[in-house]
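User: For my dataset I need records formatted as: sequence, then structure tokens, nothing else. Please produce one.
Assistant:
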Amino acid sequence: MKEPLLKSIMTPFPYSVESTASLTEAREMMQEHGVRHLPVTSSHQLTGLLDIMDIDSATEKLAEGTDPDQVTVKQVLADRDYYSVDLDQPLHAVLREMAYEHLSAAVVTTHGRLAGIFTATDACRAFADHLDRQFRPGEDEPPEAA
């Protein structure tokens, strides 16, 4: 049996947000597309990863009267590290690193460019599929969650 690679399970071509976008724009994009993570780009170069908790935390810390439309994604991320991994990485290595570092997502790249995103939700879905194949062969898969 061949070891699975990250690219077989990741979410390809994820939505992303420009670093100059406002917190309000980023939140609206997340809500519109039903996602909790957005890779951040600046002039098409990957610069970070924003999650909904970053937005919530930053919004709570805003001085009274500060409009979230005036705060950019770049200001919130402020040189914070993010986990980036090549799409050809073995899945077990990515899962282990995410567990060890308590990460909810990894940005997936190829040749230094954004290729996908891999989240804890993707990992859970893949593991559930694996268990179904192991212990419920031949049964229909459950319907996709809305």
